[in-house]
């Protein structure tokens, strides 16, 4: 069972964005007065573009080392000069180097209990206040405005930061943020249907059909020892398959299919292993191009096609099915997915995956065995963050690519005049937060233009509300225009 598909894929790019690494002491527990402990929260800062009273662009870090997000959020670097902005990327507690109990952070429930989205948001509010206090230049303003940015779970945090703490951030760009991927808000089958549609339509021949057939066939073939040995060889696995490995094997295979859909970008990107442009299309060309005559040739063809993902460098010796795809903060996210971020997923005959029902009891039991904590309320985030009832919010842009499975839990229509939804039909997982690229589809360029005009409005409203004369005197607003192509 895909207990949790890591929300964000952490892939390294060839570009290197530069910044300075800093740490700040933050309270371990923001909500009690009986615990005085603090820990060091890491953040990255770049003040090269910060001029006058320019805003702070604040990335609300998600489930991984913060450098990964800095390296894959080129959009902020691209537009910072236009806005004279200070750039900050904050690391989420319990990920990367931000470990409240060091290497013992995951060792017991008493340590892990401080890993919640509410504590993380309070960390960000604390850091924002520190930044505003230490980055104050003008006699006209007591503080500079802050805009939140985030992708995926980070996008959920950016949106929630604005909802919960509107005095701390003037607005939020929430890219591919599945704030509605919770029980009671979104049918559990939607996610896998989107993945299947991406495969169904990637090339002329329906590439989801052979995949849909494959699950039963693989179970059948691996039911005996000869079959296990055959598949071990055919799929170039590192260690011989045992009966107890079959579920892991199928999970590894289905995770690769999901991951390729998420990073189905129009240009090559680097994950743990590098990927070509449009990995799904490449996979499907390879799969549908092979001669399939019987069960074994179908499984062989799939094994060969998977090399698009596992062996694009041609340097992979063998496949380790225990190596889940590169989400660095796997332990932390697994705990979050067991406590607060329970995102129901299921499969049925309308998608290409193996049948799987959503069984909260079973899920919760597995979590209890692993972490020693039991969540009985899968709908807690609805109480915490309002579910679909977010009309009281303001100044948030939700963007979603329709090729992205996570759009299943996204906000796909406008909520109000200040809570907007931007659709990127040709976009995969938060493509709009990546730096400009000559292969960007028109829809992502337009989405970025929408972001820029929203940010412009939020911060000009802020400056204007503080001092109308200051606003008129300020020269830099005149230059806030955004022309795609400047940064390529
Ligand atoms: C800020 O980022 C720009 C663009 O990557 C880089 O050229 C500059 O050196 C960085 N500045 C600092 C202080 O890291
Ligand atoms: C990165 O920024 C630091 C200052 O923060 C600077 O010393 C260094 O030269 C920069 N490196 C590059 C490659 O721009
Ligand atoms: C927290 O710090 C205050 C002031 O130093 C101290 O009086 C108090 O006993 C501390 N509380 C705990 C629970 O350590
Ligand atoms: C954890 O950190 C402590 C103190 O730095 C060290 O002594 C210990 O060897 C570390 N344990 C592991 C498993 O890395
Ligand atoms: C596997 O498939 C073959 C032929 O398709 C069939 O004869 C056999 O009974 C199946 N074995 C199992 C274990 O389902
Ligand atoms: C995967 O890991 C489990 C437990 O760590 C081990 O028993 C199994 O042999 C591994 N499987 C493969 C194919 O490496
Ligand atoms: C990767 O590609 C190379 C070159 O084609 C091949 O020799 C090797 O077996 C492949 N490895 C895997 C795991 O597919
Ligand atoms: C999947 O489940 C549905 C409903 O339980 C059932 O009708 C269908 O036959 C199952 N499909 C497969 C391929 O097992
Ligand atoms: C939301 O409103 C904006 C501005 O009017 C519009 O450009 C956009 O297409 C709307 N979004 C959706 C999903 O309809």
Automatic annotation (TrEMBL):
What InterPro entries does the annotation carry? AB_hydrolase_fold, Peptidase_S28, Ser_carbopepase_S28_SKS
Q: Which reaction does it catalyse?
A: Cleavage of a -Pro-|-Xaa bond to release a C-terminal amino acid
Q: Name one GO biological process term.
A: proteolysis
Q: Which Pfam families match?
A: Peptidase_S28
Its cellular-component GO annotations read: lysosome
Molecular function terms from GO: dipeptidyl-peptidase activity; serine-type carboxypeptidase activity
Localisation: Lysosome
Signal peptide limits = 1-16
Family recorded in the similarity comment: Belongs to the peptidase S28 family.
Protein's job: Cleaves C-terminal amino acids linked to proline in peptides such as angiotensin II, III and des-Arg9-bradykinin. This cleavage occurs at acidic pH, but enzymatic activity is retained with some substrates at neutral pH.
Quaternary form?
Answer: Homodimer.
Which protein is depicted? Lysosomal Pro-X carboxypeptidase
This protein's encoding gene? AUGUSTUS-3.0.2_01698
């Amino acid at each position: 069972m895909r207990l949790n598909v890591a929300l964000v894929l952490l892939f390294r790019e060839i570009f290197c964005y530069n910044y300075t690494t800093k740490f700040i002491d933050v309270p371990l527990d923001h909500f009690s007065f009986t615990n005085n402990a603090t820990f060091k929260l890491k953040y990255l800062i770049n003040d090269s573009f910060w001029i006058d009273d320019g805003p702070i662009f604040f990335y609300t870090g998600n489930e991984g080392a913060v450098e990964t997000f800095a390296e894959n959020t080129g959009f902020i670097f691209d537009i910072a000069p236009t806005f004279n902005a200070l750039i900050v990327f904050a690391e989420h507690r319990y990920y990367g180097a931000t470990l409240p109990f060091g290497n013992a952070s995951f060792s017991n429930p008493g340590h892990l209990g401080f890993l919640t989205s509410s504590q993380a948001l309070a960390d960000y509010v604390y850091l924002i206040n520190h930044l505003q206090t230490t980055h104050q230049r003008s006699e006209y303003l007591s503080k500079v405005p802050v805009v939140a940015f985030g992708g995926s779970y980070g996008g959920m945090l950016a949106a929630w930061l604005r909802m919960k703490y509107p005095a701390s951030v003037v607005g939020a760009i929430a890219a591919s943020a599945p704030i509605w991927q919770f029980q009671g808000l979104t049918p559990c089958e939607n996610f896998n249907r989107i993945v299947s549609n991406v495969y169904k339509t990637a090339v002329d021949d329906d590439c989801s059909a052979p995949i849909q057939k494959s699950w039963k066939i693989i179970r059948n073939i691996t039911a005996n020892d000869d079959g296990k040995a055959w598949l071990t060889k055919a799929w170039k696995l590192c260690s011989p398959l045992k009966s107890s490995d079959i579920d892991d094997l199928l999970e590894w295979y289905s995770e690769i299919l999901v991951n390729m859909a998420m990073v189905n970008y129009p240009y090559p990107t680097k994950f743990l292993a590098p990927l070509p442009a449009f990995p799904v299309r490449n996979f499907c060309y390879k799969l549908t191009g092979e001669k399939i005559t019987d069960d074994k040739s179908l499984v062989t063809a799939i094994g060969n096609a998977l090399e698009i993902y596992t062996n694009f460098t041609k340097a992979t010796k063998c496949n380790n099915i225990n190596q889940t795809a590169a989400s660095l903060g796997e332990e932390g996210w697994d705990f979050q997915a067991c406590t607060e971020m329970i995102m129901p997923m299921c499969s049925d005959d309308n998608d290409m995956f193996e049948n799987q029902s959503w069984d909260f009891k079973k899920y919760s039991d597995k979590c209890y065995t692993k972490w020693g904590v039991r969540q009985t309320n899968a709908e807690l985030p609805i109480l915490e963050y309002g579910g679909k009832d977010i009309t009281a919010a303001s100044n948030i842009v939700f963007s979603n690519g329709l090729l992205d499975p996570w759009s299943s839990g996204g906000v796909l229509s406008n909520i109000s005049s200040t809570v907007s939804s931007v659709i990127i039909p040709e976009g995969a997982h938060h493509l709009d937060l990546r730096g400009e690229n000559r292969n960007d589809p028109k829809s992502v360029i337009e989405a970025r233009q929408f972001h820029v005009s929203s940010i412009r409005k939020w911060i000009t409203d802020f400056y204007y509300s503080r001092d109308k004369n200051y606003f008129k005197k300020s020269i830099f607003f005149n230059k806030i225009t955004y022309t795609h192509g400047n940064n390529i």
